[in-house]
Amino acid sequence: MQENLQLSLDIAVKGTKSLEIDGGDVSGNGGPLHPFLAVDTEEKQQVNRQKRQVVDECPVTQRTCCLHETEVNFHNINWNFVVYPESLTFSVCAGSCVSPGYYRKPEYRLKAFTRMNSPKHACCVPTTMDSVLFIIIDEFGEIETITIPNMKPRSCHCIV
């Protein structure tokens, strides 16, 4: 019986809701194998552990909608089945959308003005997404190429 390889990504930015990305069936073999990666960008003081490099595309004082990034080395987290890339920069859109000036499209700005006192809140979401290519070693020791579409946000904006 061959197993189905699926990739899942859970991203959490402190003070925001978690984001879960399911890559779906990426091998076409049908089965229960579900590798999972959780990326924690909170700085922790632990002995004998190499810290992940955290890059925040937003200035430290800015809390509005923007792109947050963290670099993950797959070998450092024992994901040795990933041959390429050795490391990857994961991204998430996060931040507040309180000012209508942060909305990219005029119709979103207009909606924001009309809903400023309503219970509905605007969301910081990706504007554009990139695919990510992986070369992995499957459970049978064979090399596979997997492309996961729309996995990595490239830019962010606010929508209502």
TrEMBL record:
One Pfam family linked to the record: TGF_beta
Q: Where in the cell is it found?
A: Secreted
Which SUPFAM superfamilies does this entry report, sorted A to Z? Cystine-knot cytokines
One MF term from GO for this chain? Answer: cytokine activity
Primary place of residence?
secreted
Occurrences of domain TGF-beta family profile (ranges): 49-159
Keywords, comma-separated and alphabetical: Growth factor, Secreted
Which InterPro entries does UniProt cross-reference here? Cystine-knot_cytokine, TGF-b_C, TGF-beta-rel
**What does UniProt give as GO cellular component?**
extracellular space
Q: In the record, which residues are listed under signal peptide?
A: none
Of which family is this protein a member? Belongs to the TGF-beta family.
Protein name in UniProt: TGF-beta family profile domain-containing protein
Organism expressing this protein natively = Desmophyllum pertusum
